[in-house]
Specification:
mainly alpha; elongated
């Protein structure tokens, strides 16, 4: 499966301050003025990368990052386990991504935007074949339902365990296994039918 096309990128930065996630969560809940900067510094990179790989190479990822953190500070009072700050943020990022995907589909249905062709995909090495392969892979992901797409990205692009993926999507382990199976079967089948992606498929399977 051409999963390596979704992997890579900048590693999430390590925390530059000694506060634990639980302490950060408590600061945020108490509306401490330090909380916004501290949570952003620790998790903005992670949130940005989750969103980028979830919605694809669009030009509104930074807006979605802002929406995610706004949602976090609105809902931090519902966080039951302060040490679960990271998965809590991932969950909000996924809901933000899912909303963006739905809006994008509506715009296409109503012809309020272009035909849905993905914009130029930046790559670190400028390889046009890699750029085209990523574009085609995201076109296949666009064929999936929202949950299937996000589960696929979490599992295969971000490397989440099944239990983490299930928690992030708010479903049971059995349900996430079914969702992933459908997504993997679809991506695998469609990639095999594509002359460019099939080469990546052979490399991954080998």
């Amino acid at each position: 499966m051409p999963l390596r096309l979704l992997r890579g990128g900048t590693e999430h930065a390590k925390p530059a301050h000694p506060l634990t996630d639980a302490q950060l969560a408590r600061l945020a809940r108490c509306r401490d003025p330090r909380a916004a900067t501290l949570v952003w510094d620790r998790y903005a990179s992670m949130v940005r990368w989750v969103l980028y790989r979830s919605v694809g190479p669009t030009h509104d990822v930074e807006d979605l990052v802002q929406d995610t953190f706004a949602g976090f500070f609105r809902n931090v009072g519902t966080l039951r386990d302060d040490s679960s700050l990271r998965p809590f943020l991932v969950g909000i990022a996924l809901r933000t991504a899912r909303s963006a995907l739905r809006k994008r589909r509506v715009r296409r249905w109503l012809r309020l935007s272009d035909t849905g062709a993905l914009p130029e995909v930046p790559t670190s090495d400028g390889d046009p074949r890699l750029r085209e392969a990523v574009r085609r892979l995201y076109a296949i992901l666009d064929e999936l339902g929202d949950r299937e797409r996000l589960a696929f990205v979490l599992r295969h692009a971000d490397g989440h365990e099944l239990t983490e993926t299930a928690t992030a999507l708010g479903v049971s382990l059995a349900t996430v296994k079914r969702i992933l199976s459908r997504a993997e079967d679809h991506v695998h089948l469609r990639a095999k039918q594509d002359d460019l992606l099939s080469a990546w498929l052979e490399n991954d399977d080998g």
